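Lab meeting, item 3. Inverse folding demo.
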């Protein structure tokens, strides 16, 4: 039972807080008279250019560290090398992809701002931008793979 709480605490501190705290704290602005009507806009604005990719990059780096620090039992040494190589390779690929996508999100945001469309882009109308959807999915995948890496490495 204690092992379950140990894993749950690790998940809360290393996965849930980095992803959910910035998003979960924004709705608290609804308590303020100043921002009451713009909470949905602020939440969307905080995600629409791919800002979650920064968290993905940090989690992938942490997963690489977890995998590299894994010390296997002698009888599992061969498979452990394969596990470590695959995990590090996967997360390095995700780091590169996330870096490129966050760059594209920043370029799109700068382009929209230059066009004067920044006000229109921040409205909570229409479908979410593609970069936002990709960042959410990649965040979920990274949270899963980071968690699995931690559990298997320990």
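The presenter then showed the designed sequence:
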């Amino acid at each position: 039972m204690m092992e379950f709480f140990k894993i749950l605490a690790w998940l809360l501190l290393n996965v849930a807080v980095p992803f959910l705290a910035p998003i979960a704290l924004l709705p608290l602005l609804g308590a303020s008279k100043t921002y009451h009507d713009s909470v949905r806009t602020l939440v969307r604005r905080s995600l629409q250019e791919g800002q979650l990719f920064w968290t993905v990059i940090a989690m992938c780096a942490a997963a690489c560290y977890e995998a590299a620090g894994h010390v296997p039992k002698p009888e599992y040494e061969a498979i452990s090398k394969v596990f470590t190589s695959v995990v590090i390779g996967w997360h390095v690929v995700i780091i590169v992809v996330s870096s490129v996508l966050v760059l594209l999100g920043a370029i799109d945001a700068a382009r929209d701002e230059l066009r004067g469309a920044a006000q229109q882009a921040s409205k909570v109308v229409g479908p979410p931008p593609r970069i936002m959807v990709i960042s959410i999915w990649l965040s979920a995948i990274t949270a899963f793979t980071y968690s699995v890496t931690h559990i298997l490495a320990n």
